[in-house]
From TrEMBL:
Top-level taxon of origin: Bacteria
Stored Pfam families: adh_short_C2
Compositionally biased spans, kind Basic and acidic residues: 1-18
InterPro entries named among the record's database cross-references: NAD(P)-bd_dom_sf, SDR_fam
Residues covered by region (Disordered): 1-21
The protein's name: KR domain-containing protein
Transmembrane intervals: none
Family: Belongs to the short-chain dehydrogenases/reductases (SDR) family.
């Protein structure tokens, strides 16, 4: 899972630390990053909620809206990965995968809409595996990410000018998928650019689709994967 707050912070450091709009992101917010955002005169609120718990998710979004007055941007970035062949994957792992990767996204969108004005932005961090899963054991994960492609193509929010898009990263060098891992060389063999992506490369796309320049971009699944799916 990509840590959106981390990459947004790296992006913001190049933009003089400006945090122009109240935004909610599912994901982890390390304490050091919390302090850094505050030092850059950004307002930040960290709330803990299990993405699989719909009531907790809704409360967290309501609390964020109460703190900031409104929510302009929602980034759905929580995700889980359970790798196992279909015949051995437990139903518990399957259900958890869909709860976090699909249901939680729907719950977050539903909860944020009363607090989001016209012209808001919803961005889901998906995966290039929504389109291609080149090795066995990833069927449930690929299925969950493919579901988000259908979600963003819904037209319900168009009349309000709210855009909904997926960003689909390939292998990204984070603590959960480091480029130094033994698994990396296998991944690189599937890519046109044989390296892990950098978090700031994903942040640039997230910042774009969350910004005013992308006001006419919606229903898209934008892949940044170094040619993994080429």
């Amino acid at each position: 899972m990509l840590h959106f707050r981390s990459v947004f912070d790296r992006r913001s450091s190049h933009d003089k630390g400006h945090f122009p709009a109240p935004a909610v992101s599912q994901g982890r917010l390390p304490g050091a990053l919390f302090s850094k955002i505050e030092q850059q005169r950004g307002r930040v609120l960290a709330l803990q909620a299990d993405a699989a718990d719909a009531a907790a998710m809704s409360r967290a979004i309501d609390d964020a809206a109460a703190r900031f007055g409104k929510i302009d941007i929602l980034v759905n970035n929580a995700g889980v990965l359970a790798l196992a062949p279909v015949d051995t994957l437990s139903l518990e792992d399957f259900d958890r995968t869909l709860q976090v990767n699909v249901r939680a996204v729907f719950v977050a969108v539903k909860a944020v809409l009363p607090h989001m004005g016209d012209g808001g932005r919803i961005v889901n961090i998906s995966s290039c595996n929504a389109e291609r899963m080149p090795f066995p054991g990833g069927a449930a994960y690929a299925m969950s990410k493919s579901a988000l492609r259908g979600l963003v193509q819904g037209r319900d929010l168009g009349p309000r000018g709210i855009t909904v898009n997926n960003v689909q990263p390939g292998p990204i060098d984070t603590d959960m998928n480091p480029e130094s891992s033994d698994f990396a060389s296998m991944l690189h063999g599937l890519m046109a650019l044989p390296r892990h992506g950098r978090p700031e490369e994903i942040a640039a796309m997230v910042a774009y689709v969350a910004g005013p320049e992308a006001g006419f971009v919606t229903g898209e699944s934008l892949t940044i994967d170094g040619g993994f799916n080429a």
